[in-house]
Structure prediction request, 844 residues.
Amino acid sequence: SGKEKWPRGEEKVWKEAMRDLDTDVSSITKSFVNHVQTSLARQPYNLDNLGAYQAAALSVRDNLLVNWNETSLQYTRKAPKRAYYLSLEFLMGRTLDNALLNLGLKDKYADGVEQLGFSMEDILDQERDAALGNGGLGRLAACYLDSSASQELPVWGYGLRYKYGIFQQLISPEGNQLEAPDPWLDNQNPWELPRLDVAYQVRFYGHADRLNDGTPRAVWAGGQEVLAVAYDVMIPGCYTKTTNNLRLWESKPKRGFDLNSFNAGNYEGAVESSNSAAAITSVLYPNDHTTFGKELRLKQQYFWTAASLADIIRRFKNIGKPITEFPDYVAIQLNDTHPTLAIPELMRILIDEEDQPWATAWQIVTNTFFYTNHTVLPEALEKWPVPLLEHLLPRHMQIIYDINLLFLQSVERKFPGDRDRLGRMSLIEEGFPKQVRMAFLASIGSRKVNGVAELHSDLVKTTILKDFVEFEGISKFGNVTNGITPRRWLDQCNPELSALISRTLKVDKAVWLKELTRLEQLLPFAEDAAFRAEWAAIKQRNKERLAHHVQVTLGLTINTNAMFDVQIKRLHEYKRQTLNILGVIHRYLTLKNMSAAEKKKVNPRVVFFAGKAAPAYYIAKLPSPPNHRQTIRLIVNVARVINADPDTKDLLSLYFLPDYSVSLAEVLIPASDISQHISTAGTEASGTSNMKFCLNGGLLLGTVDGANIEIAEEVGESNVFFFGHLTPAVEDLRYQHTYHPVPIEEKCPALAHVLNQVSAGLFGDADVYEPLLNTIRQGDHYLLSDDFDSYIAALAMVDEAYLDRTEWVKKSIRTTAKMGKFSSDRAIMEYAESYWNIEPLSVV
Ligand code: F58
Prediction:
């Protein structure tokens, strides 16, 4: 009946007013000034850069909103099958530059703001990063949203609107990491739309009573109810009208205060519920490959999952189809196990609210969900204590027990009498307390399961989910190698290279940015001296841009005639930043022993590190605190000594850049000659920055791990520098370390020498580093002593290769040329076609 009244009033008047916004420069300046006067309520003539950023953002947002509404309208009308990407993290970075480029309006806006007395660069620099993520997993989600919109796929993201994103990192003069909150919402966020009308109630605690009426139904009541309120973020595709949505939930108290406490004169008690509801979305957990059984984290997971499912189901119901057709219209991707509660939650809704039989409900669930695993490290696999789940989500715990019972019965039927197997596969791990294994629940509740690079997916199938492959069949388990968006990670961060590529391929970037395998056509130009000169000059200017950035932000002067060697990622033992810094010390000691004549042959090198370590308060709770923080301290103190040593400082210098972020990566990556991806074989699921560096013509120094392997397959082994033991050797080596340890002096004298110099206090603070050094001397779980010699040899090969600059630039060109496979467009289309079964839908 609503439809009959639509449109209200005179359609002609609506249509006339509804035309797309004009995008000539004078319309842009008008829109800008109009936002200054009205939205910002500021005097036009004395506007600062921040005000100019806000006005530009609001003006660009108008364009996005028109497309975003048309996209939504199209989806509603055509009712295609849609996919939803559930991720607890979306590491978006800045939006303005990306939106301008995707809309194809950057030049015009630059022109417009210049006429008004501003520089585009200064304006872009005012924006704070949206840093709602820890690292690779969160950034992958952001790349996938960009690709979904660019490929015109009906995909929405669902996440949480944290008030505080990943902490800001400060480095004290002694080299300690200090953490400060990241109040990213302090100066208004023009990129989100509060949707106060889109809200759902989410229950916690209370009690669940089975009806025992011959149905599996139960009633869950009591406890605490909080409100989930939607904030929508527009996700523009590249050169298309398609503008998708990222819906982030904020928690609010259901009622502002509790009337009973209020009447009793207990003011603090009255506002307390309000505090605890708001706490749910207040902060992103700075987890990295370690999980803690924290109630608030579990609350976040359920709050987000329940609100997202309620929203998805409401939208499905608007189509008017029976609930059994849900999987024909909805695919839900679980980004790691964090949203796994969606599985028992959908069961609960289907059974308790939709009155479906158990088997029907399970059929719907297992055709709706898809699970991506991002790690095989045991300490990173989520497990939740049964008592905590029973307390917080009593009905879900019942459902999990029921799922487990039926599941184990079917395992028993297939493998009669195999009690070990039942114990290994149970969703409930025995112990004190019992724990729910979320990766197992995610696997059995999903249509398909995948890892994020070939090697990693093989490891998933042969290690953590081996029993499940044997039980459910191999075809359920697949691989989708990760990808990165070439819009942000080439066009936006390296505009000169992007322009050179367009000129050379003689095709507009609108084409090759969406068909990245076209880069292959650059290959013949590796033989063209003039092209190589341009290529090298761009790299040089990117190095100068980075040096300028470091000069302005840290007051340090960097030698831009050196090779730039970069390792940027979360600090973690398995990523082996320690191996890198010990390699730097080795280089330093070698240089100290060189004659002046020998030194003449050495190419100068600048080594950059950046990355955050898990916060101290957090790490302290671990059984054996890892050493990431000492690693930062060592890097900073080695830098202090090396950068001040007149014998070596022209040939080797070292920088730890604080507060690594998406925006800092955008400056570092295009400037790199070589980047390091040196995890112990079999530990880095994929890695995605490896792809970003290579796309920008930086060469790769790495282990035979994660996506490094597939990069080497594409660009050719002669264009990468590989070292270290292979995955199948790792288990054996660890066994040797434990049962037949060889003293480090014997096993790896070069490494022993380096460690001894640190112990002797060459970089001060000797006692501080002892625990870190001892992890290598004893146990050495991450195999530094096994890989050190081949690492040093690989570094020497890099030096050698860099001396022949012509050949180096050829390698650089060939590397970029062969990176087409790693576009996140390819990855998202694999999910769309082989997993979700959704199709592109054009918005015209
Ligand atoms: C990363 N995982 C993988 N997890 O380490 C990396 O190899 C891969 O390329 C990337 O995912 C994308 O697939 C990762 O970033 C986290 O940050 C988790 C956050 C929550 C707790 C456990 C770690």
